[in-house]
Fold:
Amino acid sequence: MNQQNSSITNYAKMLESVSRTFTLSIKQLPGIVKDSIMLAYLLLRVSDILEDNEVMEPDRKVRLLYLWYEILAGKKSVKVLTDQLNDLDGNDPEVQVAQNAEVLVNHLQTFPKEIQESITKHVSDTTEGMARWQVQGPYIQTEAEMDDYMHEVAGRVGYLITDVFAYHSPKIKAKKEELMPLSREYGLALQTVNILRGMKKDYERGWVFTPQEFLDEAGVSRDQLFLPENQHKALQVVNKLTEKAERHLRYGLEYIAAFPTHQHRIRLACMWPLFFAVKTLALSQNNINVIMSEVKMTRDDVKDIMSTTFIKGWSNKWLKKYYDQILAEGGIVPVN
Structure:
């Protein structure tokens, strides 16, 4: 095995240690698309770890996020960052990714210039946005603010993957102007479902991503949301979030349908996270476990989605039907 292949194998193992779900999708991608998005994902995880680490104080997070931003801009050495992460638990796979930032940055230099520039831009922009929200957080007042936060941490990722897909496929490149706004919606869709799934855990670490206006509409405060006596009001909030997620998800479906049908591997790589999110949404509707614990798909759900889309996902007509079918199973009426 040559050094390049060895590096990719190591990155694949690193990726799997922090996200088995996205590993499934990224493995489907062809050639340089797979390698580029795998590396981009790990670079983004460095940003995520600096934002989400439960040990670091907020001021330190902000300082390190801006440092990481300057490193990506080529203004500082990556070693300045990794030297400041030595006190974190190196046995934690998440921390290991950040502590290997120098290796990741060096490997980025081996990719074509166009891909380097795209990855650097979008990871930098995301990192700067995370730092801004660390300063502004931990509460969100309006749906517009929620969308702003989600744009920084997920919408920009939609831009990144679209850039890489366009580099690979001239037909996708020709549709890039149409795809970009849809790619943002795709990112917002997945992030809305992430917020829905993580409501209790985020609250326990001091963050509430549910807009205050959603809470006001249900007549419940942030702290009251998780009390057993407020389950009816909490379900109003949950269902408001599922409605919002579905609006974004439908645009995400349009995003996938816009890809040429012969790019089946790219379509699958985008399809799986979307349908995992749709299934999670169906399970979340009117489900108080969203508030009290967490809602998860079963392994059988994952296998069924993967196998069914692999066989039938060539058809855009079938994709819409399958999307509506999963939502209907959860009693959700699609927003058209």
Summary: The chain has a mean pLDDT of 94.
